[in-house]
Amino acid sequence: GPLRAPLVVVVIARLQDHFKVPHSEQRITAGCAAHGVLLAAYALGIGAVWRTGELSYAPQVAKGFGLEAGEEVLGFLYLGTPLNPPREAPKVDVGGFVSEWQG
């Protein structure tokens, strides 16, 4: 639940009509900012998890945060002191995700 960490950062995208920057890119930019917070927290030894789920998309949550038209919750960053050391990430074969461009 929302009380899992001493600090919860709500990630909100404010989408604005712009002829050069579509809404999809504005969402991605907000997501990149959230990812930067996670990386900074990890570098400082702070535990950080990005969660989404039904609360991210619930109209009553948006209303509770006072969001206006064009604003949307992208997720919640839970920050705090980790109880356990971080698990080692599994090794991934990048061959399925990366290819050499032959131009």
Order of helices and strands: EHEHHE
Low-confidence parts lasting 5 or more residues at pLDDT below 50? Answer: none
Structural class: alpha+beta
Strand content: 15-25%
Helix content: 25-40%
Strand line-up across the major sheet: 1-3-2
State the name of the first-level CATH class.
Alpha Beta
What is the radius of gyration?
17 Å
Q: Could you give the count of β-strands?
A: 3
CATH architecture: 3-Layer(aba) Sandwich
Gap from first CA to last CA = 49 Å
Fill in the CATH topology. Answer: NADH Oxidase
* Global outline: flat
* Overall domain count: 1
Q: Name the average pLDDT.
A: 93
CATH superfamily: NADH Oxidase
**Main sheet: strands, sense, barrel:** 3 strands, antiparallel
Helix segment count? Answer: 3
In words, what does this structure look like?
This protein has 103 residues and is α+β, with helices and mostly antiparallel strands. The chain contains 3 helices and 3 strands; from the N terminus they run E-H-E-H-H-E. Strands 1-3-2 form a 3-stranded antiparallel β-sheet. The protein is flat. The model has no long low-confidence stretch (mean pLDDT 93).
What is this structure's SSE topology?
Layout: E1 7-14, H1 23-43, E2 47-51, H2 54-57, H3 59-64, E3 71-80
Antiparallel strand pairs: 1-3, 2-3
Please provide a brief summary of the model:
The chain is built from three helices and three strands.
